[in-house]
Protein: Vesicular-fusion protein SEC18
Organism: Jaminaea rosea
Amino acid sequence: GKKAPPNAILQANFKFEDMGIGGLDDEFSAIFRRAFASRIFPPALVDKLGIQHVKGILLYGPPGTGKTLMARQIGKMLNAREPKIINGPEILNKYVGASEENIRKLFADAEKEYKEKGDESGLHILIFDELDAICKQRGSTGGGTGVGDSVVNQLLSKMDGVDQLNNILLIGMTNRLDMIDEALLRPGRLEVHMEINLPDEHGRRQIISIQTNKMRTNGVMDDDVDLDELAAATKNFSGAEIAGLVKSATSFAFSRHVKVGTMAGISDDVENMRVNRDDFLQALDEVQPAFGVSEEELQ
Ligand code: ATP
C-alpha cells in the first residue's frame, strides 16, 4: 500500500539551545525520547518494532518552572500545527454547561483529519493547563456543580477513543499532582509522568543567561553584573521569578535615567541606560521566591 509519512517531522535545524528553556535538558531529553521520538519514524517501522505511540504525558511541579514553555517548544520542534492550549478553569467557568461539548470540539479537528488522511495526518497536540481545576469536583458529593465530573468523564472517553486516532498527543500540566484524578493517569491516557522542578544553580545560570540575552546583545547590561553571582543569589527562584527579577532590575535601571520635568518626562540619558549590579541587588529585595525551602533552612 501507500507509504504513510511520520506524524511529525523534526525541524532540520533544531537545536535545544535555541529553545530558550534553561535547566531542563535532562527532562526535555527524557520526554522527547519517551513520548515524541516514535512520531518521527516511519509508521511501518514503528509498527514492525511493536511500538505504540505514547498518547499523553503529564508535566507536574511548582508554578513558573517552564512547563508551558516546554510543551509549546516541543510542538514547534515537531513541526506540529500550533498546539491547542486549554485552560482548566476556563473550561469549567467560562463555558459551564457546555464543557463537555467544548471537550468534544477540541478533538474534532484531529478526528476529521484522521478520517480523511489516516496515518498520513499530521500531529495534533492538545495542552491542558491547570488540569487539576477540572478534576476538583469529580466524586465530590453535594455542593459542587458536578461539572468537573462530567468534564473528566468526557475527557476520559475522548482519550480512550484516541486509540484509533494515531495523530493526537495530549500534554497535561499541573502544580497539584495530588489533585489529578487517577483515572486520567492510567496507561493509554496521560501515561508518561515527568516532574519539572525548581531549577538548581546551574539551571538558574542558564535561565538568567536566556532572560538577559537581548539586553546583553544590545549592550544594555553593565560589565559589573555577574551571572554566576546572580545564579547563586536566586536559590528557590522559579524560571518565572527569574524573569521577574530581570524585569525588576531593568525597571530600576530605567527609572534612574528618567528625569521628571524634561520634555515628555524623558531625558536623553535613557539611550545610555545600563542595567548594573546595584539594579539587580535592588531587584533581589523586591522579588522573592514563593516556593521551596532551601536545605540550609531545614537544617
Ligand atoms: P504554571 O504552572 O504557572 O503554568 P509553567 O511551569 O507552565 O507555570 P511557564 O508558563 O512555562 O511556567 O513559565 C512562565 C515564564 O517564565 C516563561 O514564559 C519564561 O519566560 C519563564 N521561564 C520559566 N521557566 C523557564 C525556564 N526553565 N527557562 C527559561 N525561562 C523560563
